[in-house]
Design a protein that fits this description.
The structure holds two protein chains of two kinds. Chain A is built from seven helices and no strands. Chain A is an all-alpha fold. In chain A, helix 4 packs antiparallel against helix 5 and helix 5 packs antiparallel against helix 6. Chain B has two domains: about 220 residues; about 35 residues. Chain B is built from eight helices and no strands. The chains are: A mainly alpha, B mainly alpha. Chains A and B meet through helix 1, helix 5 and helix 7 of A and helix 4, helix 5, helix 6 and helix 8 of B.
Chain lengths: ~190, ~260
């Protein structure tokens, strides 16, 4: 079979599959409230504790006192905690990511550049997340990487805050305009 | 034309008439005039082909070229009808609509380029052009639907079905054209009857989907998030403000927690 024809058939089948997936019921996706309501406790705030837990001083002290077994166990357990923190951090990021989507859909103008940047950020986050996870699985404690990952999440929240403020100001201005129009209408004899 | 092809063709004409009648009876034609025009044009194309076939002494090549030329008109109408439905769906989201139409143009341009590079136009240029169009159309619409899904925008079920019918028909046409090219090396012209039957059947399926979509009036569009008319804005803006405030408070709380002194 000709390669081009094979590609064409594959592409058409792929399009059919995508069509079926895209036209599935999206009612679950269109309820951002559930995600927003559960965004009360961001795990980014616990980074200092995790940093403390992964610091070398404690295990070095235990090793110095000859408690090698205990030192190993402590390191292992603390790595587990860091892994759990990492998973939660990803959850935080995904929540903010969905929130950004909601903001974009409400915005009167979606900047292509911002959207691309956000996509780039998401990709970078996923890559870093996987790298750190692999490092943890192999027994390392990649503290600087974990720190920069936390910074990515914080950076996103700052940018989202700016976007929300901007949107809020715009709508407030529109509301003020509408109420002044209302008053003018009331003053009319 | 073989009898089987004629029977399916007659069935399709009936189906198109049903869709058109439904559009006017349920009064959906006002909301989707381009879609109504597309169905009407399809019917006119059917009439045109009947008249053309009854012309005495017409050459087969002339008949074929004129038939394909009339197909071009309906394909343009199909693109317009689809853009209309996407426009209606995304009207409350001007930002997303801006993004979607750019995606539509970019995807179309990309697919057209790929199809042009992949085509050799040996003997059956009309078939290849038709396949290229359907491939471009389906890719562009699915790309838009992917964006719509990404932003979690609710698309009314009727519009979903109409767009689904268009895309399904296009994807199946691409598959049919390609399979015929693969299975019958002698070329399209030799197997025109098979091609006609299969493409008409795929269109008939699309018609059934559209009849299902059009049996009820389209829902009243109350998703005017970014409406700029005074009355609508005054009614909706407090609601939107409340939601924005809620979101803002959540983000502020998030940020305050994150920036807490260590």
């Amino acid at each position: 079979m000709n390669f081009t024809l094979f590609v064409l058939i594959g592409f058409a089948v792929l399009l059919l599959l995508l069509l079926a997936w895209v036209l599935r019921d999206t009612s679950k996706l269109s309820k951002p409230n559930a995600d927003l309501d559960s965004a009360d406790t961001p795990h980014v705030a616990f980074f200092p504790q995790v940093r403390q837990a992964l610091a070398e001083q404690d295990s070095a002290y235990l090793s110095l006192r000859g408690m090698h077994e205990l030192s190993r166990r402590v390191r292992k357990e603390r790595r587990k905690i860091a892994m759990a923190y990492l998973t939660c951090l990803r959850g935080d990021f995904l929540k903010l990511w969905r929130l950004a989507r909601v903001i974009a859909s409400m915005s009167p103008q979606v900047g292509m550049l911002q959207e691309l940047q956000r996509m780039q950020l998401g990709l970078a986050f996923s890559l870093r997340y996987e790298m750190i996870r692999i490092k943890f699985l192999f027994g390392f404690a990649p503290l600087p990487e974990l720190g920069s990952l936390s910074e990515v999440v914080s950076g996103l929240s700052i940018r989202l805050e700016t976007a929300m403020k901007d949107l809020g100001e715009r709508t407030a201005l529109a509301a003020k305009l509408a109420s002044s129009l209302d008053r003018r209408w009331l003053d009319t004899p | 034309m073989p009898l089987s092809v004629q029977c399916i063709w007659a069935g399709i004409i009936l189906g198109q008439l049903s869709v058109l009648i439904l559009l006017f009876v349920v009064r959906n034609s006002r909301k989707v005039p381009f879609f109504a025009a597309y169905i009407a044009l399809n019917l006119c194309q059917g009439g045109f082909l009947v008249i053309l076939a009854s012309v005495p002494g017409i050459r087969f090549a002339t008949y074929q070229n004129l038939a394909w030329a009339s197909e071009c008109v309906t394909l343009v109408a199909q693109a317009l009808a689809t853009t209309e439905i996407l426009g209606i769906t995304l009207r409350p989201y001007p930002g997303i609509w801006g993004l979607v139409w750019r995606a539509l143009v970019a995807t179309s341009a990309l697919v057209v380029m790929i199809v042009t590079l992949a085509s050799h136009f040996r003997g059956a240029a009309w078939f290849q052009l038709n396949r290229g169009y359907h491939l471009t159309f389906a890719s562009a619409v699915i790309a838009c639907l992917l964006l719509v899904r990404y932003y979690a925008i609710q698309v009314p079920a009727a519009f979903k079905l109409i767009l689904g019918g268009f895309c399904l028909n296009s994807c199946v046409e691409v598959l049919i054209n390609t399979f015929i090219q693969v299975l019958f090396h002698k070329g399209y012209e030799v197997h025109q009857a098979v091609w006609q039957i299969l493409t008409m059947l795929s269109f008939a399926v699309a018609l059934v989907i559209w009849v299902v979509a059009l049996r009820k009036p389209f829902p009243v569009d109350d998703r005017r998030i970014a409406s700029l008319t005074d009355s609508a804005y005054r009614q909706l803006s407090p609601e939107v403000n409340e939601r924005l405030r809620e979101l803002n408070e959540k983000l502020l709380r998030l940020w305050k927690l994150e920036a807490r002194p260590q």
